[in-house]
Amino acid sequence: MSVAPMMDWTDRHCRYLHRLLSRHALLYTEMVTTGALIHGDVARHLRFDAAEHPVALQLGGSEPQDLARCARLAQDWGYDEVNLNCGCPSERVQRGAFGACLMNEPQLVADCVKAMRDAVQIPVTVKHRIGIDRVEDYGFVRDFVGTVAEAGCGVFIAHARNAWLKGLSPKENREIPPLRYGVVAQLKRDFPHLTIAVNGGLASDEAVHEQLALVDGVMVGREAYHNPWWLARWDEQFFGQAASDLTREQVEQDMVAYMEREAAQHGTHWYSVARHMLGLRAGLPGARRWRQVWSDHRLKGLPAREVMQLARTRPGTALAG
Asked: What pLDDT shows up at residue 94?
């Protein structure tokens, strides 16, 4: 089980929340481009809390040597895995000649993977789509996986939708191309020696269990972000751990303690951390007001602990754990 890399969402604060909820789920960073690391602020992009382990860095790029250099940075900073993005369909990413358009160049991806593997000891993995544009030929993704696997990649995470490179926004690319889970299951049958995980549209224990009967892993995206409390069941449901006695109140308190540490150590305002936990009480009585308090910019001048007390106070209403 893993939480997908999501731009503007799965930053280190979001990952800290997710780790409070599940000890074992693999967490991914937002995609970080090789250019951002080579020419930008490495610490800003790569800093993370030790509690986040296991955590993987996702890279965007298409130059083997640049990717090798950034993979070494990932290893030096303590990441447990480095992942190459071959699935993002945005036009901005395409202009950089990486993301989903790389599926049209499997040998280049193989060269990138080999350069990265030669540079590091941590696993190098690939996240990709099952096709490009409207072509739904299984042979396309089969040959892509086969070529990249020959370079030594043993783990593939397949978003079970095609990527349309023109005509759809990134959001539409997550919704309009049909989900075809059977393609990912076929990849596992054709490459039984590889680790194959599926991503896309999975939002319940039942759906995850159904896929885990066919492939090796499941990656969850938007549902994990908007309904993070779901992760509190993952260790029991999917990792064979005892049922957790964790409560939402405890998670909120732990996040406030984290906000206080971040403010003291890095000058981070609690407001930029709190945005990631707004779905924590989804579906509970009083959740709307709780969410409104934590997202109220007028309260930015208050300490996080006082905001928590305000969020929990509503005459006549008890916020259940």
From this structure: 59
